[in-house]
Every structure is written in C-alpha cells, then in structure tokens.
Amino acid sequence: METQAFSQLVATLRERLGEDHPFAEVRIEDGRLVCQADGPEEPAFYRVEQDGDGVWVSLVTPDRWLSESIEAQLMHTGDSIEELLDEELADQGFDAGPLAVQHFRSEDMLFTFRSRVDDPSPDSLLQVLLAYEACFRQLGDMNPGEED
C-alpha cells in the first residue's frame, strides 16, 4: 500500500473511532494509529501500522513484566491467543477467518503481539483493533482492577 493511501486509511480509522472508544488516548504518530491501553499501570499501546508490504494490528509494551503476565496467564489457562482473539473477532463481525498472532521483542525493544490483516479496509482494521483491545484487556496485568 502506498504511503499516502495508508496515511488516509489511518486518518479514516482515527475519525471512525470518534470519542467513544475503549482507549485512554488515540493519536496518529509516525504514520501509524496509536491507541494507549486504558487499564494497565505500565505503558501499552495498540497500533495499526504498515510494515513491509503488510498492514498489522498490534499490542506493544516496553514493559517485560506486562508481557510476561499475559504469557503466564495463557500458559496457566492453556488458552490459545489465536482462539481468544478469534472469539473477539466474531463478536466484532469480522468474517475473514482467524488471524495468526506473532509474539516477539522488536528491534526497538518493544514486546509485541501482532496480526497481519490481509484486507486492510477501514471496516476490517477497526474490527481487528477493537477485538485486540477486548481480547488483551482480559489478560495478565492489562486491567489490574478487574478480578478473575
């Protein structure tokens, strides 16, 4: 996707989120949509960004313990992040099939969970972004005020 087309896509997503969204803050930064997670004590951000020839929705955090708290809960419960995400995608009306979730530490030292969205339309990206937020909000220390 060309840079100008992606910039327009990001602007459209920001506009469609409006003011009634589940994030602490939403902004456009460095050509990507950045949504600060509302809940964790440590910084965590949902992103819609272009990387290589793909468009990705991700959750990133510089905090190792926050990432490990998510991993630990998944290991403890035996849940698959892909299955949990798929449930939230279905709730959002996303019908393009399940998404794979990559988990790694990026070159800029961010613990990253991300999924490539093959149909990067505003509707599908908004559905995936909101599904990511709903899925991860329930995991680890992403919402420390909630009890299991």
Describe this structure in words.
The protein has 148 residues and is of the alpha+beta class. 39% of the residues lie in helices and 24% in strands. The protein is built from four helices and six strands. A six-stranded antiparallel sheet has the order 1-2-3-4-6-5. α3 crosses α4 (122-137).
Name its key features.
alpha+beta, Yope Regulator, Chain: A, 6 strands, 4 helices, six-stranded antiparallel β-sheet, 148 residues
Condensed summary:
The chain is α+β, with helices and mostly antiparallel strands. The protein is built from 4 helices and 6 strands.
Number of DSSP-assigned strands: 6
Number of helices: 4
Order of helices and strands: HEEEEHHEEH
Shape label: globular
**Domains, number:** 1
Distance between the termini: 41 Å
User: Beta-sheet strand percentage?
Assistant: 15-25%
Could you describe the largest sheet, including whether it forms a barrel? 6 strands, antiparallel
Which segments are poorly predicted (pLDDT under 50) over 5 or more consecutive residues? Answer: none
**CATH architecture field:** 2-Layer Sandwich
CATH topology category name = Yope Regulator, Chain: A
Detail the topology: elements first, then pairings.
Blueprint: H1 3-17, E1 25-29, E2 32-36, E3 45-51, E4 54-61, H2 64-77, H3 81-92, E5 102-105, E6 111-116, H4 122-137
Antiparallel strand pairs: 1-2, 2-3, 3-4, 4-6, 5-6
